[in-house]
Amino acid sequence: MTAATSAALSMSPPTPVAVTGIGLVTPAGIGADDTWKGVCAGRPTAAADPGLAGLPVTISCRVPGFDARTQVGGAQPWRYDRFTHFALTAAREAVRDAGLDPASRDWPAARVALVLGSAAGGVGTYEQQHRKLLTTGHRSVSPLTLPAFLPNMAAGQLAIDLGVRGPVLHTATACASGATALATAAMLLASDACDIAVAGGSDAMITPLCVTAFARAGALSHRLDDPPAASRPFDATRDGFVLAEGAGVLILERAADAAARRAPTRALLTGHGSATDAHHPVAPSPDGRGLRAALRQALGRAAATPADVAHVNAHGTGTPLNDRTEASALHGLFGAADPSVTSAKGVLGHTMGAAGAIEAALTVLTVQHQLAPPTANFHTPEAHTAVLDVVARTARRQRIDLALSVSCGFGGHNTVLAFTPAPRPLGAPPAGTPSPTRPGPHLDPAS
């Protein structure tokens, strides 16, 4: 096989994949509707965190009002780590949203796959039990420690909860883990390894060790006197991200299968790309080579060109290096095409391994509603970020026929997902479609 033939095969369009369900647990709310409303309103969720008192950074973005006994239920939710609580809640919502019922005879358990990403697994449990070992001795360590904190256990517990008997996998590509899970699920569908894929990411890393480690690495914002203004993606005054927690889960099916069961398709996953910088353990490659390669792969598999892209949900962490490198890579690829750009991290903070799945879900909703959410706290661009058309202040109504969701992670991981609108009946325009002129006018998300 020649190099040219190999490249052509690797870029061949994948089996069209329908997104038929979404479930979200984020600092903006429990459930996809509350999260979407909060992100479109541009309301930052960062706040002072009493649980971090005495640490170098004392602000975070926590999921509000989450009670495992209520959200997860059952007799023993304490057996699971918080990241598993989030994953269970998001997955159950996604399955309901897709019109599926694991208790039904129609649930094809052996043909359902589950792929879940996480950057750290049950790190909260690990820290808690390690403290017990050091302070009160080995007899105080829970025998359930390993099932609670091992990174794959959220996927394992979801499989038990939903009765999934197909491939069950865990992905770990740092902050790109959730996006990698979705790309992996799409490949499982394309290879006929399953008919339905439950895929996403979950993390609960607001812990003393993680906060301290990120702070020592210089990654966190120190704008402690004004928490809501701390996460400032692409802004000239950004000084780091705000650590967050949450989960995002999507239900993926081959488009033909979704149509056959008349599933409520939200959007299509038409392409994906993954590439690695091979540059530095934590810093992105200055030339953005890995991200550019992932972008081109996603477009190639979607049979699209840079000019076709109307919107980008950026990784946009608010760290000086990431935003500068990402802006350069995006501008270098799109140039005059200039798609609108959003970072949800201004509202949600950085949910780590869950970010790629949460932001993919938001990109699906952006395509479905033809509405690009704003980037909270973006006020003053610098020379490197001024090249982007960052959506600011209010959500923007515009025509979006192709949107990309970008995720990057420590280790040089880059994953890009491409989404297009769901098929519509012949002659029916998408709801709320404006004139073809892009970008469209700013729009109050409540309208």
Please give a structural write-up.
- The chain is an alpha/beta fold.
- It has two domains: 17-260, Peroxisomal Thiolase, Chain A, domain 1 (3-Layer(aba) Sandwich), CATH 3.40.47; 270-421, Peroxisomal Thiolase, Chain A, domain 1 (3-Layer(aba) Sandwich).
- 32% of the residues lie in helices and 19% in strands.
- The chain has helices spanning 3-10, 32-41, 68-71, 82-97, 123-136, 145-149, 153-162, 177-190, 208-216, 255-260, 289-301, 320-334, 345-348, 355-369; strands spanning 17-26, 29-30, 47-48, 59-60, 112-117, 168-171, 196-204, 245-254, 267-276, 311-313, 340-342, 371-372, 389-390, 396-397, 403-409, 413-421.
- Strand 15 (403-409) and strand 16 form a beta hairpin.
- The longest helix has 16 residues, at 82-97.
- The protein is globular, with a radius of gyration of 21 Å.
- The N and C termini lie far apart (55 Å).
- Residues 1-10 and 425-447 have low confidence and may be disordered.
Chain oligomer state: single chain
Specify the overall morphology. globular
Please state roughly what percent of the residues sit in beta strands, choosing from under 5%, 5-15%, 15-25%, 25-35%, 35-45% or over 45%: 15-25%
Low-confidence parts = 1-10, 425-447
CATH architecture name of the largest domain: 3-Layer(aba) Sandwich
CATH homolog superfamily of the largest domain = Thiolase/Chalcone synthase
**Which topology of the largest domain does CATH recognise?**
Peroxisomal Thiolase, Chain A, domain 1
The sequence of SSEs as H and E is HEEHEEHHEHHHEHEHEHEHEHEHHEEEEE
Name the helicity range: 25-40%
pLDDT averaged over residues: 90
For the sheet with most strands, the description reads: 12 strands, mixed
Overall number of structural domains: 2
Q: Helix count?
A: 14
The computed structural class is alpha/beta
Keywords: Acyltransferase, Transferase
Biased composition (Pro residues): 422-439
Pfam family, one: Ketoacyl-synt_C
InterPro entries: Beta-ketoacyl_synthase (IPR000794), Ketoacyl_synth_AS (IPR018201), Ketoacyl_synth_C (IPR014031), Ketoacyl_synth_N (IPR014030), PKS_Beta-ketoAc_synthase_dom (IPR020841), Thiolase-like (IPR016039)
